[in-house]
Amino acid sequence: MANNDSLTTAEQLAREELIDMVPYQSARRLFASADQVAGEEKIWLNANEAPGLGDYQISANNINRYPDFQPDSLISAYSDYAGLSKTQVLATRGADEGIELIIRTFCKAYQDSILICPPTYGMYAISAENHGAGIVKVPLKQNDLTLDLDGLAEQVGKVNVVFLCSPGNPTGNLLPEEQIAAAIELFKDSAMVVVDEAYIEFSPDKTSTQLLSDYDNVIILRTLSKAFALAGLRCGFTLANQEVITLLSKVIAPYPISAPVAEIASQALTTKRQLMTDRVSDTNRLREELSQWLQTQRWCEQVFTSNANFVLFRCSSNETKTTIFELLVANNILIRDQSKQQQLSCCLRISIGNEQEIAKLQQVLTEQLSIPDERQ
Ligand SMILES: *Cc1c(COP(=O)(O)O)cnc(C)c1O
Q: Which atom from ligand 1 is nearest to the alpha carbon of 225?
């Protein structure tokens, strides 16, 4: 800051690191829904949202009252769904709030650090930066995107929270169960290990919830934003043993879940649960079909195995990547560029929309993409 006189009072008072900080570039910030022009319906395949409506009923009757801190019907519904006790569940404003609470609870600002394994979800680093926590990176292994356990072992005692993401975003792969258990064991006396299961509904038998009974340093993050198709609701869950939930409850806002949110979320988890399981089977089928199709395209160099509602693929060159992305934008189809992430040069990510949306994407690429065949 060369000249303090040109700063407003607010800018002078603010924590200095916030002035230059870049907020999370969410898919919705890069392309806002307000940008949509009438008559030009966009196909949104950039934020891993699910297609489909649920027809929820809400009664605004008790809206003059503050909601319960943790609405009992919601906590009961989620604990039933997850197979845990109510004391192991905290409802939050999306899994993103869970990430923030964990960092604020377990990291002293300007002193402690978190550990992330890139390429991974961007909010771990953004929340850490926001709080003043350091960020240690132990990248996933380049060949198979699994954990580098030797690299993790070197950080034991140096970090307070370790973030694992399985299935990973933006890669889509599950981490091997024995690796997750090994990481938790490594850090059992020195760090909380968070397993972000935002996409676990797409392979539900791979959950790590059973590790909660063996270790007290495990935290699992869940959300209704992906398989439950409720990204606009802002509802997520942090699963952990009671002592951890009690600590997080001291940091969270007093009324985090509004009454209408609790009502809709409770229905999604009980009477409307079948909507989610049907959507998951459709999505898994469409994802496999799209992955196979991508593998046959000459501009596609690599398709990453996915257990989530999106597919990541690598284009044959950076120019091809840009051409594909821009051709789709010109046709009102929005996907996500992941090429700036560590190890993901030339990579794009497609969220699995409904059948018509994926068919439209394939049609545009088949009929309109003209690129020289670089492999000849
Ligand atoms: C989408 C996502 C989240 C955040 O979900 P919200 O509940 O919408 O805040 C967290 N982690 C990962 C890996 C995600 O992809």
A: 8
